[in-house]
């Protein structure tokens, strides 16, 4: 006999303490009873108490605890042969980060394509360890072997052609760094996937490959690029493209794939060499094929394992615990005693079955919310075929799922997946926990893994739950597609048929709503256009009216100013006329008052004629002067 968990053996130290506690309890009861009543009264009060049963109950309690501790240590005896699939591969990606990986014969460029495909492949790993080595002129371990795929992807994302400053393509150094990451004492399959587009010294790299073959490490080579060659883009410090890289003589550099070198490296370790050029060969398919080939190579072996026998001590321990708990301490009739024993046996039997292991695990059939009137009851079953404390973890996961603690249920199921990634039932249960936490994309991935199960019931449930997930994502066409696939496996699944009809009705309603919405948008647009047109016309008319009003105001102002000027001129003219009249009026009055004599009139006439004569002479002189002629007056 062997024990798988000896770490629980220290619990046997509790047994002596428990026995001491039991003796102390009875001594304490005796002392208290003596204080409470005399001996005769005590005998009358306790005449129906069966002291033998009391002792028997305590013995049952101690025995049950011993058996439970014994079960926790997981006793094993008897050997059975079992085919165990060897899960878990150590994979190191050796990625070329030289400047030639910027060539764009593979879109968007070689290094970006390689990084993307590596990350997509790693997302599908379960229980494998991955590492990353980057190299150009030298090599550097970017990520040691790890199960933390999130950390791996984070470091992979930050890899660029500037990660290593030394130029070149040193494949030899990259292979040496990769081989140092493996622990040769471990029996897991060890693989190096070399992704490069450059050349190296053939002898040195092949020599390292032969050492890898001795270490049972396979080196798959993937040539990233075209053997015909491609030009290398050139960028400035700010990332702006300048053209293509040139040599010292000014010729454009062309990078070519060293196919023969890569083939020799792979052949040395009995692996394959691939070329991911600009044609039909897809880099992602190549990496996935490598992973599948390695899993087939270490698929399964026959092992002799010890069988767990913890169920029997656990069962008897629970039985004795029930007896010590529910067995009455008073004297009972034989008929009553038989009923108690039968009840305890039945209780123990049902308890044992509730913790038993069923032969198959199924995930919950979960229905979309609109289908509540025909919703199935979610259920997660138990699994079989595990060693150590896996049984306990399964029960913990089921309990947490049934108590709607889906996050913790997912953690428990995921831990089990790391031990047995090929178990499709576990993928189904894990997907159901993710579904309940509304992580529908991740749930779909787990359900897709469950589709590889040979069990038709598991496959139909996987299709059914994928359809549920797509329904939650409001991708109704895909949801119908997967419900139909579930019906192909189980044509009598009325719930799937019902769901399809409900989704079809919803699609029709969505189509009608979309048409109504389009018509509504069209009407709103027409109304808006008409309103905008009316507003434009109204604005135009308002602008015209404002302009006319402004012109009218300006014209009125001009007319008013002109009228004002005319009135002012009239007033000035009238004023002048009045002043002239006022000047002429005294002369007329004087002339009216006084009459001139003939002599005065002749004299005045003569004065006037002299004045006219002087004016005439003056004008004549001015005229002659203007012509430039000077003439002396006759009198002068």
Please tell me about this protein's structure.
The chain has 636 residues and is of the alpha/beta class. The chain contains 19 helices and 13 strands. The strands form 4 sheets. Strands 5-4-3-6-7-12 form a 6-stranded mixed β-sheet, with helices on both faces. Helix 3 runs antiparallel to helix 10, helix 14 runs parallel beside helix 16 and helix 17 packs antiparallel against helix 18. The longest helix has 100 residues. The protein is elongated. The termini are far apart. About 7% of the residues have low confidence.
User: In this structure, how is the largest beta sheet organized?
Assistant: 6 strands, mixed
Class of secondary structure makeup: alpha/beta
**Could you say which overall geometry the principal axes of the C-alpha atoms support?**
elongated
Q: Could you estimate the helical fraction of the residues in percent?
A: 55-70%
- Per DSSP, the total helix count is 19
Distance between the termini: 175 Å
Taking Cα atoms only, what radius of gyration do you get, to the nearest Å?
55 Å
For the largest beta sheet, what order do the strands appear in spatially? 5-4-3-6-7-12
* Average pLDDT taken over every residue: 76
| Percent of sequence in beta strands | 5-15%
**Unreliable stretches:** 347-391
Number of strands: 13
């Amino acid at each position: 006999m062997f024990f798988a968990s000896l770490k629980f053996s220290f619990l046997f130290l509790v047994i002596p303490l428990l026995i001491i506690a039991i003796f102390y309890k009875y001594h304490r009861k005796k002392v208290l009873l003596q204080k409470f009543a005399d001996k005769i009264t005590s005998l009358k009060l306790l005449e129906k108490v069966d002291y033998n049963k009391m002792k028997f109950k305590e013995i049952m309690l101690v025995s049950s605890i011993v058996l439970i501790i014994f079960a926790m240590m997981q006793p094993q005896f008897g050997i059975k042969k079992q085919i165990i699939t060897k899960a878990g591969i150590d994979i190191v990606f050796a990625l070329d980060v030289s400047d030639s990986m910027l060539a764009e014969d593979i879109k968007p460029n070689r290094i970006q394509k390689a990084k993307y495909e590596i990350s997509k492949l790693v997302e599908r790993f379960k229980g494998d360890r991955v590492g990353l080595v980057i190299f150009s002129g030298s090599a550097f371990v970017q990520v040691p072997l790890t199960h933390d795929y999130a950390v791996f992807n984070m470091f992979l994302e930050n890899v660029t052609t500037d990660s290593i400053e030394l130029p070149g393509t040193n494949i030899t150094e990259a292979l040496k760094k990769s081989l140092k990451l493996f622990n040769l004492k471990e029996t897991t399959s060890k693989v190096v996937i070399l992704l490069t587009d450059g050349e190296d010294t053939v002898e040195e790299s092949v020599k390292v490959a032969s050492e890898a073959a001795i270490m049972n490490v396979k080196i798959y080579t993937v040539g990233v690029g075209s053997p015909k060659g491609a030009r290398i883009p050139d960028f400035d410090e700010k990332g702006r493209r300048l053209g293509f890289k040139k040599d010292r003589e000014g010729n454009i550099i062309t990078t070519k794939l060293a196919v023969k070198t890569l083939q020799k490296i792979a052949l040395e370790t009995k692996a394959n060499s691939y070329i991911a050029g600009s044609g039909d060969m897809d880099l992602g398919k190549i990496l996935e094929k490598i992973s599948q080939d390695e899993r087939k190579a270490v698929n399964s072996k026959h092992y002799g394992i010890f069988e767990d026998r913890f169920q029997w001590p656990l069962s008897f321990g629970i039985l004795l615990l029930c007896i010590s708990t529910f067995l009455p301490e008073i004297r009972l009739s034989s008929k009553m005693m038989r009923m108690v024993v039968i009840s305890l046996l039945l209780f123990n039997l049902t308890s044992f079955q509730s913790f038993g292991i069923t032969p198959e695990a199924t995930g919950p059939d979960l229905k979309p919310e609109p289908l509540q009137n025909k919703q199935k009851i979610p259920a997660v079953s138990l699994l079989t075929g595990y060693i150590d404390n896996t049984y306990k973890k399964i029960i913990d996961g089921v309990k947490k799922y049934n108590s709607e603690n889906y996050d913790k249920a997912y953690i428990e199921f995921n831990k089990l997946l790391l031990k047995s990634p090929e178990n499709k039932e576990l993928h189904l249960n894990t997907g159901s926990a993710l579904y309940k936490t509304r992580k529908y994309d991740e749930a779909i991935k787990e359900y897709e893994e469950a589709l590889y199960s040979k069990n038709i019931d598991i496959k139909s449930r996987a299709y059914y739950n994928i359809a549920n997930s797509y329904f939650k994502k409001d991708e109704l066409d895909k949801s119908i597609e997967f419900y139909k696939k579930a019906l192909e496996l189980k044509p009598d699944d009325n719930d799937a048929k019902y769901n399809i009809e409900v989704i079809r009705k919803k699609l029709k309603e969505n189509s009608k709503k979309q048409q109504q919405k389009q018509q509504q948008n069209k009407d709103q647009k027409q109304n808006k256009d008409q309103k905008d047109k009316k507003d434009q016309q109204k604005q135009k008319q308002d602008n015209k009216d404002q302009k006319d009003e402004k012109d009218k105001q300006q014209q009125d102002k001009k007319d008013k100013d002109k009228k004002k000027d005319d009135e002012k001129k009239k007033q000035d003219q009238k004023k002048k006329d009045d002043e002239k009249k006022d000047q002429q009026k005294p002369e007329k009055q004087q002339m009216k008052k006084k009459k001139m004599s003939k002599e005065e009139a002749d004299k005045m006439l003569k004065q006037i004629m002299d004045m006219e004569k002087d004016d005439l002479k003056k004008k004549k002189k001015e005229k002659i002067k203007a012509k430039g002629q000077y003439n002396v007056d006759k009198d002068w």
